[in-house]
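Title: Comparing notes on inverse folding

I've been comparing how different people in this forum approach sequence design from structure. To keep things fair, I'm posting one structure and asking everyone to reply with a full sequence. Here's the target:
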């Protein structure tokens, strides 16, 4: 297994090696040591590789990921898994703001807390946060699922489109056009799979509340002007 020590190796060399992998190849394994908060670690991977990052990272780790499985054994700075297309990213610690922003697919698991704007403008990604999330999370979220085992901050789901939000704890406030919705059997099934995929076995889907779009802001209406 290749080991890249970022205390002695240039980050550019690590990312170049990951980009050179055959997207149709076998499941290779990489280990990254001493990341020391480096930015843009393991970005733009387009191959079925397993990357273990032994420490905390800075901005944009695992951005634009496609098919790779990336685990950060520490905390992640802003924009982790931004614009991810597929694969799986696991953060063993906390994640800073706008985790999973604009991501189109894949699974992002944050085992700690996530800061503000988690899942902003998400477009198909599934995000599971075992802790709490900050304010303005799922702002303009278009599709996908955001699962929160803890609490959510102010303005959850502001200007939401069709993403599904599941919160087990309390929600400080809902954003414009975000409302509480019934948890139907199909949502229980979706949530059960997401919890299983995230390795969570001691929590039941029935313990969550579902939130979604009231669909009142899709087109401008002068009667809704105060909500824009």
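Reply #1:
Here's my take.
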């Amino acid at each position: 297994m290749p080991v890249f020590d970022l205390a002695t190796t240039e980050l550019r060399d690590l990312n170049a090696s990951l980009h050179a992998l055959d997207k149709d190849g076998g499941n290779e394994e990489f280990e990254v040591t001493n990341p020391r908060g480096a930015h843009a670690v393991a970005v733009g991977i387009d191959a079925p590789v397993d990357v273990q990052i032994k420490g905390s990272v800075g901005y944009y780790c695992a951005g634009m990921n496609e098919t790779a499985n990336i685990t950060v054994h520490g905390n992640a700075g802003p924009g982790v898994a931004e614009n991810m297309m597929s694969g799986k990213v696991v953060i063993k610690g906390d994640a800073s703001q706008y985790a999973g922003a604009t991501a189109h697919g894949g699974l992002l698991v944050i085992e700690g807390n996530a800061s503000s704007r988690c899942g902003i403008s998400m477009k198909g990604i599934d995000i599971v946060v075992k802790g709490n999330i900050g304010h303005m999370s799922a702002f303009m979220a278009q599709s996908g699922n955001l699962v929160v085992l803890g609490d959510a901050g102010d303005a959850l789901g502001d200007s939401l489109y069709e993403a599904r939000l599941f919160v087990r704890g309390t929600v400080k406030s809902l954003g414009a056009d975000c409302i509480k919705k019934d948890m139907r059997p199909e949502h229980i099934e979706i949530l059960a799979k997401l919890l299983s995929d995230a390795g969570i076995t001691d929590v039941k889907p029935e313990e969550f509340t579902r939130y979604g779009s009231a669909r009142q802001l899709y087109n401008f209406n002068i009667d809704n002007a105060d909500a824009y």
